[in-house]
Design brief:
Blueprint lengths: L16 E5 L4 H10 L5 E5 L5 E5 L1 H12 L5 H4 L2 H9 L11 H4 L1 E2 L4 H11 L3 E5 L5 E6 H15 L1
Parallel strand pairs: 1-2, 4-5
Antiparallel strand pairs: 2-3, 5-6
Length: about 160
């Protein structure tokens, strides 16, 4: 894992995430997410398709509870600043988490680096970026774990 590059398990042009611009309405994202259950994540991109960050599923779920379902009891489970943040969020940028350095990986990064980022940021999907920070694919936790199991079998 410490020497195996991401590109070894990267499926070219395989995208399991939805890419949206930072000014996209959150309700529009919810609709797209609901239309396609195969979507595993939401990436925010700039006007040049450069990766900016993600919207975590927990933040999106909390936003739906507070804004759409109006389940105000949810506030008790959230810090006051977080509840206020969710109430005022309207665009994707308002729920953005991370950035291209903390969440993006490159083809030549190791699987260990990718797994460390997934664990640290509690995400099951990472964007694989080119040198211009454009998304060239997804790296799924399932692909990483499959490789780990494969390596374990070869070691026996």
């Amino acid at each position: 894992m410490k020497t195996i590059p991401v590109e070894e398990i990267l499926r070219p042009h395989c995208m399991c995430a939805l890419s949206v611009t930072e000014d996209t309405d959150l309700e529009e994202v919810i609709a797209k997410f609901a239309e396609n259950p195969a979507i595993r994540g939401i990436y925010l991109v700039d006007s040049k398709e450069g990766f900016l960050g993600i919207i975590r599923s927990t933040d999106l779920r909390n936003w739906v509870q507070v804004r759409i379902l109006k389940e105000f009891g949810t506030y008790r489970a959230l810090a006051a600043w977080k509840a206020y943040h969710l109430i005022s969020a309207e665009k994707c940028i308002d729920l953005m988490y991370g950035d291209r350095n903390s969440l993006g990986v490159k083809r030549n990064d190791t699987l260990q680096t990718a797994l460390d980022k997934m664990v640290e940021h509690e995400t099951n999907i990472l964007p694989v970026l080119d040198d211009s920070h454009r998304i060239i694919g997804d790296l799924l936790i399932s692909d990483v774990l499959f490789k780990v199991v494969e390596l374990g079998k070869q070691a026996k």
